[in-house]
Amino acid sequence: MKNQNYMSHKASAGLLLTALIWGFAFIVVKSSLDKIGAFYMLAFRFSIATLGLSVIFFKRLKFINRSMLKNGFVLGLLLFIGYALQTIGCKYTTAGKNAFLTAVYVVLVPFLHRLINHQKTKRINIIAGLIALLGIGLISLRRDFSVNIGDMLTLMCGFAFATHMVYVAKYTADQDPVLLTMLQLGAAAVMSWVFAPIIDGGFPAEAFHTDIIGSMLYLGLMSTMVGFLLQNVCQKYTSPSTAAIMLSTESVFGIIFSIIFLAERPGLRMAVGCGFIFVAIILSQLNSEKTAGYNKQSL
After folding, report:
1. Separation between Cα atoms, residue 245 and residue 259, nearest integer Å
2. Which helix (H) or strand (E) holds 1?
3. Residue 242: is its pLDDT beyond 80?
């Protein structure tokens, strides 16, 4: 039990570090979208991450089997959909709103966990969902009750990320998280390269600019390679609900970094809406299982 608690604490710390890395990525993405298309950006970041993991863990490649390939494809598809929606959404909304609306996945995880893994949904999760809905309305709805397309796309990406998180918990329970990370990023990279020329057009010449190269290296090596490797490994030692609450702090880091680096100033309505979502995030984790998804298999 002592070792289990120790690993759980280490996993939480790793997930918190992941959230910080992802929080700053909102700023990088927002600053780069005017120079490079969303799908080319995804293609670069997923390809860089896949190449990096393949070089570091090349000795593990021989252990890939058909089941891992299938599971890696499922995770990669969900990842691609989530990031495509998030990246495009960031183009039409602020980095701070994009960060907070993405965090809605933390409220969705318990419901999807019940649907996919047959886990019971508690009453407090339903209450948290209603509070989150109120917060989302305050952030997204305009005075004429219309919804910004960027906000809607970001909300949809939150659903994709919630589904991805539930399946990560399911697949990493008995499979190597490093190989699953590599396979899912590789699958997402292929999908991104397929859609990039169709949606974004010709290859962007700006991709060779120094600032864009630096941004793509951060997104590829830190936000994607390190971030998802940490998530997949740490989720072996904690529950999806606990992982969700730790990763959801990316929204807090995203707001902080957007204020510091992009001079964004959230208004009162947005601040109140964010407050409701943050309360929902906390409530959705109360009385949640502490050890579900924990796996003693070492990395």
Report:
1. 22
2. none
3. no
Phi, psi angle pair for 14, to nearest 5°: -65, -40
Q: pLDDT confidence of 2, banded at 50, 70, 90?
A: low
- Only one residue has tokens 């109140």, namely 272
Residues 193-199: contacts with CB under 8 Å, at least 24 apart:
193/43, 193/47, 195/39, 195/84, 196/37, 196/39, 196/40, 196/42, 196/43, 199/37, 199/38, 199/39
Contacts of 278 (CB under 8 A, 6+ apart): 135, 252
pLDDT of residue 4: 62
Give dist(CA 62, CA 118) in Å, integer. Answer: 33
Instruction: Give the integer Cα–Cα distance in Å for 281 and 246.
Output: 10
Helix axes 250-262, 2-32, angle to 10 degrees: 30
Alpha helices for the chain (secondary structure H): 2-32, 38-56, 66-92, 95-102, 105-117, 123-140, 149-171, 177-199, 210-217, 227-234, 240-247, 250-262, 268-283
Q: Amino acid identity, residue 49?
A: A
**Residue holding tokens 């990763």?**
247
Contact 45, 213 (CB under 8 A): no
Dist CA 167 CA 171 (whole Å): 6
Angle at Cα 109 formed by Cα 108 and Cα 110, nearest 5°?
95
Q: Which residue has the tokens 């997949």?
A: 232
| 263 confidence band (pLDDT: 50, 70, 90) | confident
Give the CA diameter of the chain: 58
Q: What is the pLDDT of residues 92-143, one digit of tens each?
A: 887 667 777 777 787 788 788 778 877 666 677 678 778 877 887 777 666 6
